[in-house]
Amino acid sequence: MASYTQGGAWAWHAEDELGVIRVGARADVVVWSSNLYALGADELLGERADLTIVNGAVVHDARREFAEEPPVEAAAAYATKGVPFSAHSTCSH
Fold first, then answer.
1. Whole-angstrom Cα distance, residue 18 to residue 28?
2. The whole model's pTM is what?
3. Residue 31 contacts residue 62 (beta carbons within 8 Å)
4. Residue 23 pLDDT greater than 70, yes or no
């Protein structure tokens, strides 16, 4: 896993702000509804993204634990990078 996180941050010369989860870091994180590694391939389609954090801001919160509505400006900033995203969408399979 470190090669995908800390290794990537090192390659971009951004070890101080990327590749870690801590206050001040620019985190992109998805929290799934279950431990995907504990499931069989036939069970994966029933799972969903419960929480999505982009650049340190909550942009999707299925359980509404962190915000009433995800910050639209964070979703808009994400979309300007060429990735389609809707702040009001839910994960669908």
1. 9
2. 0.55
3. no
4. yes
